């Protein structure tokens, strides 16, 4: 797996290098960073250490040779190819040698102090090189696709996606998580959470903020919330935004772009895409259907 490090310190030596950023975004400060790039060079050597965990997916292209070492031991000697994954835990020094590089990749950087389900196990996973996992690949590609459409996904959605990636990465390494205990949120706890979401539905709500309202660790809250509502928190929040959008489309003449802004969507196109996915119809068509004369 090849990449140009975005975070951390180290030495980089390249010949005839070209790197072009495609997509880049961060959430919760820089606790979560997603970076998509194209990288091409004849030869490169990278030696670096980063304060974040790193998961890299080669989206396309490859190398004629990739050689990876860590702690004086050879971890991999072969070629990069589309669809392979690499994981580097925070604080681990990694040395990579690459030849005939021409590829595109997506890199997900995760602060090890971030309290999300499954992420605590990432500390115990060693460096993994050129593994394959269709689930993680699909999740990272979906994030890249969403951003390529001009949408900046909400924090709560990205947190949920990263938690799934972390849980899956633990499985990929053989570091299984213990079975989760079941349980629903108490009535008063759920009412506090619901009131918080109602009051902040137009904001970029984070999973950690909602869990704090419930007075629970993030992983426990996310599990119990889904047991209570049948949906993960991010899906519940999106559905609530769309429900409010229906009311505004029906009862007001507010422009669709203004509704999108008022309900916290990153753009009108993001609002339209989400509304159509959940309701099977665009906001404009919905308004025309309920008020044909408008």
UniProtKB/TrEMBL annotation:
It comes from the Bacteria. GO terms for molecular function: DNA-binding transcription factor activity; sequence-specific DNA binding. InterPro entries: AraC_XylS_family_regulators (IPR050204), Homeodomain-like_sf (IPR009057), HTH_AraC (IPR018060), HTH_AraC-typ_CS (IPR018062), Tscrpt_reg_AraC-type_HTH (IPR020449). SMART domains: HTH_ARAC. PROSITE patterns: HTH_ARAC_FAMILY_1, HTH_ARAC_FAMILY_2. Keywords: DNA-binding, Transcription, Transcription regulation. Residues 191-289 form the HTH araC/xylS-type domain. This is Putative transcriptional regulator, AraC family protein. It comes from Sinorhizobium fredii (strain USDA 257).
């Amino acid at each position: 797996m090849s990449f140009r490090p975005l975070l951390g310190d180290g030495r980089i030596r390249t010949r005839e290098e070209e790197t072009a950023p495609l997509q880049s975004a961060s959430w919760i400060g820089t606790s979560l960073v997603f970076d998509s790039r194209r990288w091409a060079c004849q030869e490169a050597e990278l030696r670096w250490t980063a304060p974040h965990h790193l998961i890299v997916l080669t989206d396309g292209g490859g190398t004629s040779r990739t050689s990876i070492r860590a702690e004086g031991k050879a971890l991999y000697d072969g070629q990069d190819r589309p669809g392979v994954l690499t994981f580097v835990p925070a604080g681990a020094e990694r040395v990579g040698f690459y030849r005939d590089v021409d590829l595109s990749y997506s890199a997900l950087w995760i602060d090890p102090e971030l309290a999300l389900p499954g992420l605590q196990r990432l500390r115990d996973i060693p460096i993994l090189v050129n593994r394959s996992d269709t689930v993680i690949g699909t999740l990272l590609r979906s994030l890249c696709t969403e951003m390529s459409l001009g949408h900046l996904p909400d924090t709560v959605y990205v947190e949920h996606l990263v938690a799934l990636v972390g849980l899956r990465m633990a499985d990929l390494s053989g570091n299984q998580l213990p079975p989760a205990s079941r349980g629903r949120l108490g009535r008063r706890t759920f009412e506090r959470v619901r009131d918080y979401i109602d009051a902040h539905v137009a904001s970029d709500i984070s999973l950690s903020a909602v869990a704090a309202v419930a007075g629970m660790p993030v992983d426990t809250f996310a599990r119990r919330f889904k047991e209570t509502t049948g949906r993960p928190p991010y899906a519940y929040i999106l559905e609530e935004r769309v429900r409010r959008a229906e009311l505004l489309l029906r009862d007001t003449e507010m422009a669709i772009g203004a509704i999108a802004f008022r309900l916290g969507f990153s753009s009108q196109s993001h609002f339209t895409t989400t509304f159509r996915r959940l309701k099977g119809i665009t906001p404009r068509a919905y308004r025309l259907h309920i008020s044909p004369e408008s």
